[in-house]
């Protein structure tokens, strides 16, 4: 066998004649006579098991495989294995070297979220690891993803109302030059719905689906869901009752027997306030007021 040649194969995405291809590139030792290369393309069919999809014998330091949506499509993890051998003596072969797995499709960062009912926004980045092909539409080449949420309930068993809110229901992935495993990217914010209910921690998922695409590559592809775990937080309460006794959020108690319209509560951080109107309900015997109206914003 030939000694280890450190071919270091790596996979990158590329558009070739307007069609999505993957390119396996590797180092080319300066030997005399020049070497030939056997490139075997494979994809992960089941966890831990690979399925061969193409063999290529070449003098070049690269090999291409097309993503046609049939034997190789979006959602596949792809590998290329390269073996060098002498043109004069084919039995003289190097040890085969395998690339890292390349995931072709939509990726989410982070892949899962753990958030709380505290009003904070969390950024979810959506990117495509392969270039977007739009023959004849280079000026506005994009993939539109429809986003939706589904509540899986407490411990993923009891479905319920929406538990997370998204800043957008659709995002456009605009074609851009591929760099650092991203050929198009967009972002949305995810916020937990504050439901004022002590319903425990709940699990939701975010789904994305490509819409309006006619080509086979995107039409048959559904990206993986994003799992979102929402941590339940206790809700503050305040009260105004009977004539009227008031208990504030922090438990302070007092009475307000006066007649008129009052500001009961106001948030200092957002547009939220509650007004209350009180009228005389004690008559001549006692100075007592009762709630007769409330307005909330």
TrEMBL record:
Q: What is this protein called?
A: VWDE protein
- Organism of origin is Phaetusa simplex
Domain VWFD residues, every copy: 236-297
Q: Which Pfam families match?
A: Ig_VWDE (PF25776)
Point out the signal peptide segment. none
The UniProt keywords, alphabetically, are: Disulfide bond, Signal
Q: Does the keyword Signal apply?
A: yes
Name any one GO molecular function: signaling receptor binding
One GO cellular component assignment for this chain's record is: cell surface
Q: Does the keyword Disulfide bond apply?
A: yes
């Amino acid at each position: 066998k030939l000694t280890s040649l450190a071919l270091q194969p790596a996979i990158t995405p590329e558009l070739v004649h307007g069609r999505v291809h993957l390119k396996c590139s590797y180092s080319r030792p300066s030997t005399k006579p020049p070497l030939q290369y056997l490139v075997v393309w494979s994809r992960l069919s089941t966890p831990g098991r690979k399925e061969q999809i193409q063999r290529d014998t070449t003098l070049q330091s690269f090999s291409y495989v097309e993503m046609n949506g049939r034997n190789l499509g979006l959602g596949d993890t792809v590998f290329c294995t390269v073996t060098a051998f002498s043109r004069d003596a084919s039995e003289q072969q190097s040890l085969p070297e395998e690339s890292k797995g390349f995931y072709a499709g939509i990726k989410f960062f982070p892949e899962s979220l753990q958030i709380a009912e505290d009003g904070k926004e969390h950024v979810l980045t959506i990117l495509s690891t392969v270039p977007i092909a739009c023959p004849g539409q280079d000026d506005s080449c994009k993939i539109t993803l429809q986003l939706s949420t589904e509540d899986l309930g407490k411990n993923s068993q009891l479905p319920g109302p929406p538990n997370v809110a998204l800043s957008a229901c659709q995002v456009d992935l605009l074609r851009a030059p591929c760099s650092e495993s991203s050929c198009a990217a967009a972002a949305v914010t995810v916020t937990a719905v504050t439901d004022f209910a002590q319903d425990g921690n709940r699990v939701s998922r975010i789904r994305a689906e490509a819409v309006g695409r006619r080509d086979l590559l995107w039409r048959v592809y559904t990206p993986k869901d994003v799992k979102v775990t929402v941590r339940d937080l206790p809700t503050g309460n305040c009260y105004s009752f009977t004539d009227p006794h008031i208990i504030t959020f922090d438990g302070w108690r007092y009475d307000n027997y006066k007649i008129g319209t009052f500001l009961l509560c106001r948030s200092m951080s957002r547009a939220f306030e509650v007004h209350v109107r009180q009228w005389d309900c004690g008559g001549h015997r006692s100075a007592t007021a009762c709630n007769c109206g409330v307005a909330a914003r």
